[in-house]
Amino acid sequence: MGSLPASSSDLHFPHSPPKQPQPQPHSAVDESTLLNLFQSQQDHLNFFFRNLDLSQTLAFTRTLLHSRGTIFFSGVGKSGFVARKISQTLVSLAVHSSFLSPVDALHGDIGILTPRDILILFSKSGNTDELLRLVPCAKAKGAYLISVTSVHGNALAAVCDMNVHLPLQRELCPFDLAPVTSTAIQMVFGDTVAIALMEARNLTKEEYACNHPAGRIGKSLIFKVRDVMKKQDELPVCKENDLIMDQLVELTSKGCGCLLVIDEDYHLIGTFTDGDLRRTLKASGEGIFKLTVGEMCNRNPRIIGPDTMAVEAMKKMEAPPSAVQFLPVIDHQNTLIGIVTLHGLVSAGL
């Protein structure tokens, strides 16, 4: 008995792969287009500068300056990114600040607020639902609320203790929708106020550096020579009566490119470098076998103290008439206690 013919549902036909969407052609971007956009953004920013209410800004800045608690920032979307960044700037300037997510706040994080704190709400429209829901809860905690908005008569300004209006002519976006100018003026406003607080609090360079220990700024203002120098057990030392040829291993093995010539009490007499070795060999030939380190060393080398800033050591190495690769470190009694090298400074991030 023959088999029944397969139904159409049982048949499998090869099919072509789905078509990939074709890339849409783009209009060219030329220098003139970019220049016009930058000039337009400049005009929008100038509108902000011309129309900013300085009395509002002064009241805002003084309120932050006299804060007895933590200054919290909040916002949604792009305004939230700006709020977080401004908070981080203040933290780096030794101001007690933090970012409070409006969503997380309504799920427990609002417990961090106290009556001593300030909560600053960034919103272009002032009608952001998440922030409006946060307001009564923050008020119940006793925090002082400040709105920073760009639309007059908005709901957020009406329910906060203070409002700062950031004048916005329009967004650079051709549809006046993408928040590119509004976030720019929020950032300019917040960071400028942060610097005003920095100056009012008389923050020193050293205090600022303490908050940036891993960066080059911090290292240049915190690190001293004693922090980056090689210490006594790592030093390539010899006595002035030692023969040059007997000290070649010491000269080359310590990675300093020199010998530090000392007396019995570890006082520095001079230095002898690998460059001095080459010059002596060229001038003396076989006579080098009889020469002592003391006869050929530099008895007036550049030196530095252990409490000098490391960045100053680098400047001293690079000073005229010619750069050097190391500086012996001596104490106030001319006792050798270390050596700082250019390689060591660079390795430390300076």
Characterise this structure.
- The mean pLDDT is 88.
- By secondary structure, the chain is an alpha/beta fold.
- It is elongated and about 90 Å long.
- Strand 4, helix 6 and strand 5 form a beta-alpha-beta unit.
- Strands 2-1-3-4-5 form a 5-stranded parallel beta sheet, with helices on both faces. The chain has a 3-stranded antiparallel beta sheet with strand order 6-11-10.
- The protein is 41% helix and 14% strand.
- The longest helix is centred in the N-terminal third of the chain and has 21 residues.
- Helix 2 packs across helix 7 and helix 3 packs parallel to helix 7.
- Belongs to the SIS family. GutQ/KpsF subfamily.
- Keywords: CBS domain, Repeat.
- One of its GO terms (biological process) is carbohydrate derivative metabolic process.
Number of strands: 11
Q: Shape from CA axes?
A: elongated
Order of strands side by side in the largest beta sheet?
Answer: 2-1-3-4-5
> Which residues form runs of ≥5 with pLDDT under 50?
none
- Helix percentage: 40-55%
The major pleated sheet works out as: 5 strands, parallel
What is the C-alpha radius of gyration, as a whole number of Å?
34 Å
Give the distance, in angstroms, between the N- and C-terminal Cα atoms: 92 Å
Q: What share of the residues does DSSP label as strand, in percent?
A: 5-15%
